[in-house]
Amino acid sequence: MKHRLFLAMLGIIALLAATPDFAQMAKGWKLRSDHSANASDPDAAGDIKFMAMGSGFHIVSPQAAVYWNPANTVSGSYSLKGTFKLIKMSGYHEYYGLIFGGSEIQGPQQSYLYFMVTDDGTWLVKRRTGDSTESVSDKTPSNSVKKPDDSGMSINALEVRIRSDKVEFVVNGTVVSTMPKSGPLAKADGIYGIRINHQLEVAVDGFGISKL
Fold first, then answer.
1. What is the DSSP string of 76-128?
2. Full strand arrangement of the beta sheet holding 174-180
3. Which class for 69: exposed (0-12), middle (13-18), buried (19 or more C-beta within 10 A)?
4. Do 188 and 74 form a contact (C-beta atoms < 8 A)?
5. Taking a C-beta distance cutoff of 8 angstroms, is the pair 195, 67 a contact?
6. Half-sphere exposure of 182 (CA within 13 A, CB side)
7. Please, is 153 exposed, middle or buried when counting C-beta atoms within 10 Å of its C-beta (0-12, 13-18, 19+)?
8. Are β-strands 111-117 and 78-88 bridged in parallel, bridged antiparallel, or unpaired?
9. 71 vs 40: CA distance, rounded Å
10. What digits encode the pLDDT tens for the residues 57-115?
11. Do 47 and 24 touch, CB atoms closer than 8 A?
12. How far is the C-alpha of 118 from the C-alpha of 154, rounded, in Å?
């Protein structure tokens, strides 16, 4: 009995760590934030907000965070899409985009892949395992990535196509990279969601999957 009680307490602690009590969240969604330890690139003040807005979401992310609904899992061949409207940027080149192949995101063995873009016109792909990150593709410039206009806003439609033997990364309808479905990209089944780095305000629409 004491052992079961101890395990239950650990589960509650992990849940509280993954979802801060100050966060405003859309129903059914969870978050896990990453706090900046870089004094030259600090987190912003204020609360995280992840709010339903029409058919999509409005996200205010003073701290970097990953957002997911535990019901959103997929396996096999599929396409994951989301259209990201950058509303407010930080003055730093902070990334935002899609996560996929996720598991145990609330725990110490969190794992997921992410495909992201930023305001300087670059994209990247990484895998997170626990507290470590591995670069799958370093930041790469592409004319397909829309930079902010004079109002400071931009819109980028991102897509990841998981096929049996390869993974295609797409920005605004253009395939910016095709990689073998091996190594860090071998595990693409699992939870899918959204990642927004700190000091950003972003609207997301058209988020979801379709089978290929």
1. SSEEEEEEEEEEE--SS---EEEEEEEE-TTSTT-EEEEEEE-TTSEEEEEEE
2. 24-25, 49-53, 56-61, 200-211, 78-88, 154-162, 166-171, 174-180
3. middle
4. no
5. yes
6. 2
7. middle
8. unpaired
9. 37
10. 999 999 999 999 999 999 999 999 999 999 988 777 899 999 999 999 999 999 999 99
11. yes
12. 10
Placement of tokens 């204020």 in the chain: 46
pLDDT at 1: 52
**What is the DSSP secondary-structure string of 148-170?**
P-TTS-EEEEEEEEE-SSEEEEE
At position 79, the amino acid (one-letter code) is: S
Structure token digits, residue 168: 């295609």
